[in-house]
Amino acid sequence: MTAGASPTGTPARDRLPDGTEVFTKTLAGAPPQFFEREAAGLRALAAAGARVPQVLGVRADRITLSWVPQGHARTAATEEEFGRELAALHRTTGEHYGAVDGEPTAYLGACPVDLTPTDTWAESWVGRRVVPLARRAADEGRLDPDTAALAERIDAGRLGPPEPPTLVHGDLWAGNRLTDPDGRSWLIDPCAHYGHRETDLAMMQLFGGFSGRVFASYVEELPLAEGWRERVAVHQLVPLLVHALLFGGGYGVQAGDALRRAAG
What we know:
Elements: E1 10-15, E2 21-26, H1 34-47, E3 55-59, E4 62-66, H2 76-89, E5 105-108, E6 111-114, H3 121-139, H4 145-148, E7 166-168, E8 177-179, E9 185-187, E10 193-195, H5 197-206, H6 212-221, H7 232-235, H8 237-247, H9 250-263
Antiparallel strand pairs: 1-2, 2-4, 3-4, 5-6, 7-10, 8-9
């Protein structure tokens, strides 16, 4: 769930009959495959070596995960280690951009997004997500139609040099990273897919909560293509448009500003 977004389920700490502590999220009337897609993302991240809660059970209206205790303050050491771990995750690549298992249904927070597998990053990010979300925002009065139309002018060159489809968390704001009592970082609530690694880094900058040490250790471990800072706006478009759809107001203004920068 992105910062300020609609709930992705009511959380509750519970115990199984054998005494194992678990974390269960429920959502009455959840959209189709809502929790199934979260489970698929967690399993994909786990298979790539990321530290995530174990999926213990999933149904149409709930997901049950292993409990992750928290309690360690974030320090220079924890931030640097997280940067290295994120770089390690981003070394996992796939054949196509989009869903981890070919299923196009996905949710960013409570908003549906299209992760239909594609051959190019531009089609996946701009064609399948930015343009449809911008059109919907205009239709719902969240974005000026002329500004929304800028989405269709975003050139593939604005997305940076070609890179292989990279496994990303997909919703990496600070609240979706936990730190356990040993200082280890855990990832939760993903919209995991094969995309562009700069989207995770752009999302981390959108709402703050990550120190410069995270980015410095990441770049040291896995350097970014030249000009990545200038591409932050285009890689923030999807979460900004999602927030504009859910809340309007200032998020619509931010999304419009990002669209103007991205379209040049």
